[in-house]
Amino acid sequence: MRSSPSIGPTSALARQLGLSRWTISRVLNGHPEVKPETSRRVWEAIESFGLVPSPLGRALRGSRTGMIGVVFQSIGLPIISKKIATLQRVLREAGFRALQELTDGNPHLELKVIRHFLALRVDGLVLVGGIGARNAQTIISLLQERRTPVVMIDPLEPSPLPTVELDRKAAIRIVFEHLHCLNHRRFAMLGIDSGVPWGSIRVETLQGLFREHGLDWDGDMCALSNPGAKELGFAYGNELADRFLLVAPRPTAIIAINDQVAVGAMLRLQEKGVSVPQEVSIVGFDNLDVSAHIRPPLTSVDQHIEEIMQSAVALLVRQPGDHSPAEPAFCQVHPVLIKRDSTGAAAA
Amino acid sequence: MRSSPSIGPTSALARQLGLSRWTISRVLNGHPEVKPETSRRVWEAIESFGLVPSPLGRALRGSRTGMIGVVFQSIGLPIISKKIATLQRVLREAGFRALQELTDGNPHLELKVIRHFLALRVDGLVLVGGIGARNAQTIISLLQERRTPVVMIDPLEPSPLPTVELDRKAAIRIVFEHLHCLNHRRFAMLGIDSGVPWGSIRVETLQGLFREHGLDWDGDMCALSNPGAKELGFAYGNELADRFLLVAPRPTAIIAINDQVAVGAMLRLQEKGVSVPQEVSIVGFDNLDVSAHIRPPLTSVDQHIEEIMQSAVALLVRQPGDHSPAEPAFCQVHPVLIKRDSTGAAAA
DNA sequence: CTGAAAGCGCTTACAG
DNA sequence: CTGAAAGCGCTTACAG
């Protein structure tokens, strides 16, 4: 009789309530055959003792674990922290427990982390920022083998896996149209080149908008960036502003890769006696905390992170376990331009 | 013969290499009795196939899991993100896998999260920001029952558990002494009251320093704060700066609760025509990214997060499993003042 | 409606 | 040095 000596939390509870441990398990798993009265007693005891049935036992047996593996590359950027915090809360509200891992963008580590999550039998995987191209195929087959639901958030490259992302074309469009309405015709891009995340799509979208509005890309767009830049931070904004000041004729509007670069540039311009927005308008990206409090407050694109994460979790839960590559779920979230005082009418 | 049909990763590997799965297990666990040649072959295969032995099986059997549970309250503040990122990296360098959970400061959730980590058989627990007083006793007995190593980082209240924390008295002292050397004699505290984390200790330390230097607390220290303030952010700094401007005689130095409040205050003062540091010097706390790039760059206290986390992990690893409450390990890390241009000599 | 077996993937004694 | 049993805490068939 090897079944009797078990001493796990559920067995202990069973003994205490005078039930068999199988009954406890059935209650835990919502089986319909338990007497309602018994079920009520068991749940009550679980609550009051704070009993946690071993996730190890459950997982090993093949049951749901309630855990979601969250993989992301770094936590350094403020916008990433905000994504993580929101995702964790949304997952918790959906009854899941988020386990987070950082990969530092290291493909080897990325694969290891995903393998570990799968070995832990997570109920799903959220890949923030996508996965390295090198690993894509391996990871896709691992996931399909396990039938683990997955969702990518803002992948750097299109992926055959279910995806939720910000509509980056729309983001560029609302920025451009805001500035165009304010009569700006000569622009500078700060830090936007094909080497940064979503750099190419931004450039291409802007080129399209230039054509649409009869502007001349070569004459009216000044692209300033340093392809070797390691960090897209304040210091980079300073550096690019210095280069901006040498450009003639001077553009009247700046579109920055993100809020840090925008703020860094704005501070340097002001230091050099250029007034914002009277002489130059500036738009950032991400709508960070600091942006609303700088002088003048920065016009910026908000990513609607709450909506992105809600959609991602909805997608994850809805997956039947086999995400057939034939019809990968895909969801784009619309950004919103937060208009503040760093943008104004172009000088005549 | 119920042992044969196992199909876990290790069994699969065993079959492939013509070994028994017990041998694989022995290699994995570094048992000395395995032939070196066999051991080498096994490790090689593990590497090349990216095999992950089921952590569920291992954990259930009582072996080490390599997982460390990290519990923290929120991820909103930039300084917290920095702590988390550093901790995760340091843990990884020590061969661990960090599982992170947020509690939003909710005591009920805190207890649940810790119970879940223990049920997952983590090898250790890191509690960032300490634990709610309500739960302290429950959690301490849970940990001792399980003999799970634990370390608290910067707990809000002294704890009988092993602890690593910033020496906050020293932090206040180096700030005060820097300003005192610059001949400042009339001070304002912004956002520092007994309601904020480590508020009381800062006030008391400053009072001691005032006595030591023959200053008059009631006459020379102006404490500005709003006990109802929800967020210690830029907007709060703005608000407090407005109140600062009404004070007469005007203090020549401001000690802010953190960098956001310092920056918010500085920007508002400048807007009102008060020059920093000529008329007022300002010191922040946390040494955030933004602080080095604002104009003028902000003098601030750096928390030496790297050292804090290194010490914490060292403490965790060193624990014999039974942290006797008789001699709780305790480690204080010294802060460093980063002197920048927001502080200067007091006007004569 | 409830009891008991089988087995998830491991590791550690215990034999040989 | 290596084989096979026992058992970690569960859940799901299968009996009653």
Descriptors:
homodimer; 348 residues; alpha/beta; 434 Repressor (Amino-terminal Domain); Rossmann fold; 3 domains; six-stranded parallel beta sheet; six-stranded mixed beta sheet; 12 strands; DNA-binding
Note the topology.
The structure is a homodimer of 348-residue chains.
Chain A: H1 9-17, H2 21-28, H3 36-49, H4 55-61, E1 67-72, H5 78-93, E2 97-102, H6 107-119, E3 124-128, H7 136-146, E4 150-153, E5 163-166, H8 168-181, E6 187-190, H9 199-212, H10 217-220, E7 221-224, H11 234-244, E8 253-256, H12 259-271, E9 281-285, E10 299-302, H13 305-318, E11 330-333, E12 336-338
Parallel strand pairs in A: 1-2, 1-3, 3-4, 4-5, 5-11, 6-7, 6-8, 8-9, 9-10
Antiparallel strand pairs in A: 10-12
The structure holds a DNA duplex (16 and 16 nucleotides).
